Amino acid sequence: MGARQIGKTSLLKMLFADANDVLWLNADEPDVRALFENATNNTTCKIINRDNIEEFLI
């Protein structure tokens, strides 16, 4: 999702610093990557404990 070490995570952490409902996942971790590798929208909703992920998709 972009070049490595250019500040993507730092920018997001600054933007969401005051949010208390953010779930931070590290896609460099093999188990996290595997969890989402073939996940459907319904599976993703269950993983992140949301009723409907459609509202978050563009």
Helix and strand topology:
Blueprint: H1 8-15, H2 30-36, H3 41-48
What does this structure look like?
With 58 residues, this protein is mainly α. Helix content is 40%, strand content 0%. The chain has a domain at 20-56. It has helices at residues 8-15, 30-36, 41-48.
Features:
3 helices, mainly alpha, 58 residues
Instruction: Tell me the major beta sheet.
Output: none
Gross geometry? globular
Helix content bin: 25-40%
Strand content: under 5%
| Integer-rounded radius of gyration | 13 Å
What would you say about this model in short?
By secondary structure, the chain is mainly alpha-helical.
